[in-house]
Every structure is written in C-alpha cells, then in structure tokens.
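Here is a tokenized protein:
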Amino acid sequence: MTTTQTPATTENLPAPARKTGGALLTSLGGQNLSLIGALVLVLALFGFLNDNYLSLANIQVIGEAVTITGLLAIVQTVVIICGGLDISVGSQAGLASVVSAMVFTSGGSNPYLGMAAAIGIGILVGVVNGVAIVYGRVNPTIATLAGLAAYKGVAQLVSDGRAQGYVLNDPLFVFLGRGKIAGVPVMIWILVIVALAVHVMLKYTDIGRNIYAIGGNDTAARLAGININKYLVAVYALIGVVAAIAGILLTARTGSGQPVSGSEGLGSVLSIMCRAR
C-alpha cells in the first residue's frame, strides 16, 4: 500500500505557523528579502573563494570595522522615518572623538570625564541642528550640510588638524576598543544594544509611533496633538548622542582622537542609500 505525501506548503502548515510566517514576511518586506538573499549569495561566494572568510575571527574583525558605520546608519534611519535628514553625522563623530581624547588627557586621564564631554558635545550639536531646522526653517539638507563642514572645521581647529591624546594606557578605553564579552567584541555588543533599543522605541512605544506619524503626515500628526517641533529637536539630539558614542568607539579603537576620522563622509552616503530605498 502506497501513500501520497502532500508537499509542504504554507497551506498545510498549522494556522499559528502560517500566521507567524506571514507576519515575518510582512515585517521584512519583499525588497529586504531580496537584499538578504543577495547577501547570502555574496557570503557564500566569498566563503567558497577563501576558506577563512567565514571564520569566527574574520567575522569579528568585520563586525568591529562596521560598528561605527552601523551606529550612524541606525540613527540616520530614525531621522529619515521622521521626515528629516542629517548629513553631518560623520563630522559629529569626528568632533566627539577629538573632544573625548583631549578632555581625557587634560582631565587627569579620567575616561568618564572624556566620554561625558563627548556625549555633551553630541547633544549640543544635535540640538543646534534641530533648532536650525525647526525654528530657523532651514531645509534639513542645507542645515546639516553646513553642519558637516562646520563640525569638521571645529574638530580641525581645536586639534590643530592632527590626532590628539593617547588613550591606550587606560583600561576602559582599551576594553571598549579591544575587549570581548562572551567571546564577542565589546564594540559589536554596543552596536547590537543600540540597534535593539532603537527597534523597541520605534515599534513598541508611543514615541516610535509618533515618529512614524510625523514622517507619514506631519499635518495630521499636528492635528492629533503631537508636538512636532519637540520631537524633531529630540530626534536630532538623539543623533548627536549616538554619533558621540561612535566617536568614543573611534577613539578607543585608534588610540587617539581623530579629527579626520574617515567617517565624516558617511552621513551623506548613508542618506543617499536610505533615500534610494
């Protein structure tokens, strides 16, 4: 006696499984699925060409290399959802890097003081961007393009155009730049934590829903009672904070404050990529 087996399809799955699978596909989106598929193919190709490419050590090196870019991409996503734009995030990171190292050196080698100063300057430049856009009625592209040049100029001015400070004699900076937790570099843990925090904020809080509402239809959001001006300034301040964290990690990784960080052009690149989507 033979039996005919029905191919496994979504129709044959239990209702909860179909619901979960459909929700996952909806959450990812067709375009994202195609990108994930392309990424898998690229990884498979490089893994085939080089046996060490997919090794744990190489994956960790790649993860550390993309941490700063990833942090800036996360907050760039938030501001674009909100209907804004920030091209200056790279220069903000460079300025925060210089400030963290210089304050650390001049403050008796106190890492907490250097990091607090970097976070403070990040909040300041973020609020400046937000106020210029919201209350100065300056187009976000123009305002943050000016910020890109201005913050880079300030970093160059205060540092005399060269790397400042030396932080590799401090255990905390060494831990941030080169340490590991459970075998995973600390820098990657920080990227994951920031990504999860932003994801939770956007998806599960009223703040996130209001950000989506502002980006979707600011007039309707205003009529619904959302203080759009406050939200926009707060979002740009959030960008400054995360850019400062990226700057601190840049200092920890390179061992000194970097006015020309290599990340200063990332804001415009990330903006173009997100807009293209």
Summary: The first helix runs from residue 15 to 28. Confidence is low (pLDDT under 50) at residues 1-10, 271-277. The longest strand covers residues 180-181. The beta strands are 180-181, 184-185.
